[in-house]
Design a protein that fits this description.
alpha+beta, 3 domains, NADP, Uridine Diphospho-n-acetylenolpyruvylglucosamine Reductase, domain 1, Uridine Diphospho-n-acetylenolpyruvylglucosamine Reductase, domain 3, globular, EC 1.3.1.98
Length: 414
């Protein structure tokens, strides 16, 4: 086999690479700098039967404290290309295709598109992670999901050993899931044997279909309130992006920009976007009341963001919810009509877990500003986070009969 073309570096720990800041030492770590090198790194690990974890921004991984005796691969390619005319042609289709390599930081792509006057993903501003991970998870927020804008996803098929191009239908996007993510699990939240913790399909690049437009519909009530407009109104996409960043900052849902000063993270994100996140952090401190400090807000950001997915229920199960529980009719491919989504944050709060809740002698806690985020308050271990997550899952299930499922990929949970 050809030797992979890549940068080989001394291996870090998962704590060095993840937003939660926990996890054991990694045995081997590779940063391929081109497409062939990425494929060869993956193929080499599979040929040797070596455990494989392809990591993006590390915002959706909770790894065990024990060492990972396998290979971790992080795509070092960060390229964005507009495939059509950069400016709209009068009287013609205003759609435009934008391609990005899997290793591109997601928010760098959003910022680029907003600056270019391309609408469709501005509501997804500030979500940590990479372009590759975005389509595996089908990230979504404030009325948008990435799956709504996907044209094609180029992948390496680890089973057939070929490059494939999947269209949006083949991706089978659902709520925080896709056909790629499904290959990792044999049941919701239950890891499979063959491919976990990395899907059968490794994302190489993603092509989105966006629209030449400096405005976009505001389809989120919360976002509309922040912008002081009615839901459904058109607003400049720059203002939408700024409002989303501000909302996420107040909730502690922007990653800590300081992590990009660490040696393992330097160069993985555009400097201008790091500065924007820093400014949003400072503004959120000013706007917070009750003596919240910048240190408190930074600590809240040492998390995986929303740790639990909002439960998606059939009509029978939804009818058993308390009348005051939030309920939203949703329609996803493969789901029956009448499917209802409820709020995991509401369930957690009404099961008795308040903001800042933690177990005795544990440095893992619920965020002080958002009950859906589990945070590392400083010196937490993965086991602390596991124990807190299970306690919350058990409490919600006991109260409401619903088992909430973690959103992050949980590696080697004990």
């Amino acid at each position: 086999m050809l030797q992979p073309r890549q940068d080989t570096v001394q291996a870090p720990s998962f704590a060095d690479l993840t937003t939660m800041g926990v996890g054991g030492q990694i045995e081997s770590f590779l940063c391929p700098t081109d497409r062939v090198g990425l494929i060869e790194a993956v193929e080499g690990a599979d040929a040797q039967g070596q455990p494989l974890c392809v990591i993006g921004g590390g915002s959706n991984i909770l790894a065990a404290d024990e060492a990972f005796s396998g290979l971790v691969v992080r795509d070092a390619r960060r390229e964005i290309n507009v495939l059509d005319e950069a400016a709209p042609v009068e009287g013609q289709d205003r759609s435009v295709h934008v391609a990005a390599t899997a290793g591109t930081h997601w928010d760098d792509l959003v910022n680029y598109c907003v600056r270019m006057g391309l609408s469709g993903i501005e509501g997804l501003s500030g979500i940590p992670g990479t372009v590759g991970a975005s389509v595996v998870q089908n990230i979504g927020a404030y009325g948008q999901e990435v799956g709504q804008s996907v044209d094609t996803v180029e992948v390496w098929d680890r089973q057939l050993k070929v490059v494939q191009e999947l269209n949006a239908r083949q991706m089978s996007f659902g709520y925080r899931t896709s056909a790629l993510k499904a290959t990792m699990y044999r049941a919701p939240g239950v890891p499979g044997v063959e491919f976990f913790p990395t899907p059968r399909y490794i994302v190489l690049s993603v092509t989105l279909v966006l629209r030449h437009s400096h405005t976009s519909r505001v389809d989120s009530d919360q976002l509309a309130q922040a912008l002081q407009v009615e839901t459904g109104n058109l607003m400049p996409i720059e203002q939408i992006r700024d409002a989303v960043l501000a909302i996420r900052a107040r909730k502690g849902m922007l990653e800590d920009p300081g992590r990009y000063q660490l040696s393992w993270m330097k160069g993985t994100r555009e400097t201008s976007n790091i500065q924007a996140a820093t400014e949003a952090l400072h503004m959120s401190v000013i706007q917070q009341s009750g003596g919240t400090t910048e240190c408190d807000i930074r600590t809240n950001r040492h998390s995986c963001g929303s740790f639990f997915m909002n439960p998606v229920l059939d009509q029978k199960k939804a009818a058993q919810l308390p009348p005051q529980a939030p309920q939203y009719q949703v329609l996803y491919q493969g789901r029956p009509s009448g499917t209802v989504k409820t709020s995991a944050a509401w369930l957690i709060d009404h099961a008795g877990f308040h903001k800042g809740f933690h177990l005795e002698n544990s440095m893992a806690a619920l965020s002080s500003v958002h009950t859906l985020a589990l945070t590392n308050r400083g010196g937490a271990t993965a086991q602390h986070v596991y124990d807190l997550a299970r306690t919350i899952q058990d409490g919600v299930e006991k109260t409401f009969g619903i088992r909430i499922i973690p959103e992050p990929v949980v590696i080697a949970q004990r």
